[in-house]
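To whoever is on call:

I kicked off a structure prediction for a single chain this morning and the downstream step that reads the tokens threw a length-mismatch warning. I double-checked the sequence; it's 559 residues and nothing unusual in it as far as I can see. Pasting both halves so you can look.
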Amino acid sequence: MKFPSDIEIAQSIPLHPIEQIAQSLGVDREHLELYGNYKAKINYTIFDRLEDKPDGKLILVTAITPTPAGEGKTTTTVGLGDALARLGKKAIIALREPSLGPVFGIKGGAAGGGYAQVDPMEDINLHFTGYMHAVGAANNLLAAMLDNHIYQGNQLGIDSRRITWKRCMDMNDRQLRFIVNGLNGRVNGVPREDGFDITVASEIMAILCLSRDLDHLKEKLRNIIVGYTRDDEPVTAGQLKADGAMAALLKDALKPNLVQTLEHTPAFIHGGPFANIAHGCNSIMATKMALKLGDYVVTEAGFGADLGAEKFLDIKCRVAGFKPSAVVIVATVRALKHHGGAQKAELSVENLAAVEKGLPNLLQHIENITTKFKLPAVVAINRFPTDTQAELAMIEEKCRQYGANVALSEVWAKGSEGGEALAREVIRLVEEGRAEFQYIYDNELSIREKIEEIVTKVYGGDGVDFAPAALKEIAKIEEMSFKHFPVCMAKTQYSFSDDPKKLGSPRNFKVSVRNVKVSAGAGFVVVFTGDIMTMPGLPKVPAAESIDVDSSGKISGLF
């Protein structure tokens, strides 16, 4: 039997006018800015009338360490939100916007799957409300003003060899990682080495997602460090007088985007930082707005719990003051078999030995959430037709020993009906009120100590090997009074370690830190481990080769 594709399912279900979705939240027309019939932005002036309203309950969805077999984290997030609504809760979903890089690269679309999707999925995956481009424009305006300042006399004495600010674009393009520009004569600028980051890994994206309001956004933009002078002093966007114009480009981008699921549950999609090279969570503005408008807010953090969830809890929650009530850890039998050494072609065959060998990966994520962060957790098994009862029973037994119940999730095939068991377990955890949330590290620790705390407590490593360049940069960052910043680990998503080949729950390893960089505007220190890149490349066969549009404008091949 051939199942319809995600895009075919999405295109077959009529949507409600977005004004109707907004009305269900109590959002009036005054605060709604329409982008066609099915998308809208909500103006942040609505906070003025929501100030005294109590917050709803925040549910974080994370996952085991990713594998080529897939986990279905976004699908589970959407299905859980629909299931909570089905059970009578006023639920809102809060997600990130997919980056065009992965959409056209190896991953394809990222709006959920099957009957648990946010819609209009084509728009969400392609341009959406255009705010991602506003982030790129603000980033590149600062780059242009920086190079123009040097060209026009360099009054600030910027050392062109010590510029840290890169240009960006929302596309996978390895050719642009390292470039030389300003060539072919003085009229074309000052020659120097440069490079591009993908937009979702840019500091502007992090600033957009971590800003509490427009004034906070302007303050963060002003504090961006773009490079250093010949006297080794930092140069900021504020000194270049770029912050005002950048804020003007971003003022509408800061407004959260409202869409709906296939079952018409409201969904905020705002921000898009990667979780392996950025902090991997949707915006504070969207989460904060959802908490004021709903009783249950279901949000996700990218990749495994060692990346997105750690950054959500140690960075986003620290900045915004959020306290999650429960955590959902998504896993699949297939992915556990992969961590247990089974080959991709063998994942549909019952293999209890591989499941048992792969289980330590899931169990370590459970222990991190329940013991290290002290949050109640439920494991959501995203069920596949080939999963056997013996495999499911083994997972359930082991998880209970680690303090987490297991709920089967069948939302891909059944929508909200397939998520009822998971939703009931989440409601139970929330109503029990057992969350005693704590951070992994204290802000007053040194940067080096914070990195070591994450590596030893979350990753299970023995320690950290710091390259001389990293130690030198850490000393400088602390000298500039940024010691109190949280750290944002840039690490492979495929392993607890910095080696993507170390599957399962590896032990007896150290993480290599090759460099660090202060993102003074975003308010954290980025830590580069292994060979992680901030500009991905396209695969041998990009997903873009399968995407098309017919004469009526109907898109196909988008997942």
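Update from on-call: the warning came from a stale cache, not from the record. Cleared it. Sanity check on the structure: DSSP finds 19 helices and 25 strands in the chain.
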